Amino acid sequence: MFKQRTFGAVAAVAAVGVIAAACEKKDTPAPTAAPAEAAKPAEPPAAEPAKATEPAKAPEAAKAPEAPAAPEAPKAPEAPAAPAAAPAAAAPAGEPHPAMKDPKLANEKAPDEYKVKFETTKGSFVVAVTKKWSPVGADRFYNLVKIGYFQDVAFFRAIAGFMCQFGIHGDPAVNGVWKEASIDDDPPIGQTNARYTLTFAKKGMPNSRSVQFFINFKDNGNLDGMGFTPFAKVVEGTDTIDKINTEYGEGQPGGRGPNQMRVQMEGNKYLKGEFPNLDYIKSASIL
């Protein structure tokens, strides 16, 4: 979780630095180079057939009787092909996706670019994901959307002039299996934490991204060198982002907002009981 710092000339740097030490794990993706097209082999020039000279006819020799062909050895039966791994079964209507309780089942590869629409308590917004910015992270985010993870998920940490953070699930049982489902870091390629970019939150250690994210309220380029690699940007509904409630600010114990440990352990029961004005993501879908 991020630790609070006073925002100001000195505090801005300190508050940003705390993100690495206190936030939960997040993921990011890495670009893949397109395979080069194989060169076509050159066709050999057609040679003009040489005219054969007619040999003088010789008397035909008597043909020797042909030896009978050896019988063919019976073919060994082919081994059956190994069955392909089955994709995760879709959840029955009204039931949560199986991957909600088993992160290993959320393993699809994301397209190079895709968009996700979020419906929130403040309206809707759309993010455009560019996989080459952070390939591993883009895959994780894609799978979370596909399995229906972002339903009734709070913006539990929103600090005016900095960012809003989300991703801890409202169901403690889901948090129990996903909070440690970390992914590898993606190497930075020069993409900065500009206003309205979407980035994984993480702990202050390598390869600690899992399911928490933040949207930058302003340009936060000082996060770029701390392992926070953006993978998407809000392209529609920026006014919705600007309206996210920031009244609770930094989380406890440094601030008056929700305590992340309690959010993990108690979920939305804790949030809705003690922080009734928080905003929530109601749903997310691939466009």
Textual characterization of the structure:
It is built from six helices and nine strands; from the N terminus they run αββαβββαβββαααβ. It has 287 residues and is of the alpha+beta class. A nine-stranded antiparallel sheet has the order 3-9-1-2-8-6-7-5-4. It is globular, with a radius of gyration of 30 Å.
Strand and helix map with partners:
Layout: H1 11-22, E1 113-120, E2 123-130, H2 135-146, E3 153-154, E4 157-159, E5 163-166, H3 172-178, E6 197-200, E7 213-216, E8 230-236, H4 238-242, H5 260-266, H6 268-274, E9 280-286
Antiparallel strand pairs: 1-2, 1-9, 2-8, 3-9, 4-5, 5-7, 6-7, 6-8
Helix pairs in contact: 3-5
Properties at a glance:
alpha+beta, 6 helices, Cyclophilin, globular, 287 residues
**Tally of DSSP helical segments:** 6
Shape: globular
CATH class division of the domain at 11-29 and 116-286: Mainly Beta
Query: Helix content range of the residues, please?
Result: 10-25%
Largest sheet: 9 strands, antiparallel
Beta-strand content estimate: 15-25%
Main structural class: alpha+beta
The end-to-end distance, rounded to whole angstroms, is 30 Å
Quick structural overview:
The protein contains six helices and nine strands; from the N terminus they run αββαβββαβββαααβ. It has helices spanning 11-22, 135-146, 172-178, 238-242, 260-266, 268-274; strands at residues 113-120, 123-130, 153-154, 157-159, 163-166, 197-200, 213-216, 230-236, 280-286.
